[in-house]
Amino acid sequence: MSITATELKNHLGKYLLLSATEDILITKNGKVVAKLVNPHQNRVETAKALFGILPKDADIDRAKAERLDRI
Questions:
Q1: In Å, what is the CA distance from 40 to each residue of 44, 48, 71?
Q2: Rounded to an integer, what is the distance from CA 33 to the centroid of its chain?
Q3: Between 7 and which of 3, 18, 27, 64 could a Cys-Cys bridge form, CB atoms 3.0 to 4.6 Å apart?
Q4: How far is Cα 61 from Cα 64, in angstroms, rounded to an integer?
Q5: 4: exposed, middle or buried (C-beta count within 10 Å: 0-12, 13-18, 19+)?
Q6: How far is residue 22's CA from residue 36's CA, in Å, rounded to a whole number?
Q7: Mean pLDDT of the 41-67 span
Q8: What does the pLDDT read at residue 5?
Q9: What is the dihedral of CA 6, 7, 12, 16, to 10 degrees?
Q10: Which pTM was predicted?
Q11: Helices marked H in the chain
């Protein structure tokens, strides 16, 4: 779910409750600036869900270098 910062400010309680079941993306001026998530989310299950998405030759150092080159 995506909401504006103003919407979050006006209805914080509602979105705190919703964050227990889904991630809330907060936007400002049309750009995502924050993400509200459940701190008790099972990280192992999340990692397992990502299994197979990354290519076998993925390299963290190369990815970091590519990201820095874009800045």
A1: 11, 16, 33
A2: 10
A3: 3
A4: 5
A5: middle
A6: 9
A7: 77
A8: 96
A9: -130
A10: 0.56
A11: 5-10, 12-18, 43-50, 60-70
Look-up: residue for tokens 């989310």?
A: 41
> Where exactly are the structural domains of the chain?
2-70
For residue 10, the 8-state DSSP code is: H
C-alpha pair distances (Å), 23 with each of 36, 58, 62, 71:
6, 26, 29, 27
Cα–Cα nearest to 3, from 43, 35, 39: 35
| Structure tokens that stand for 13 in this block | 């309680």
What are the DSSP E strand ranges found in the chain?
A: 2-4, 24-28, 31-36
Measured CA to CA, the distance from residue 33 to residue 38 in angstroms comes to 17
Spacing of C-alpha 6 from chain mean position: 19
pLDDT at site 71: 62
Place of tokens 């076998």: 56
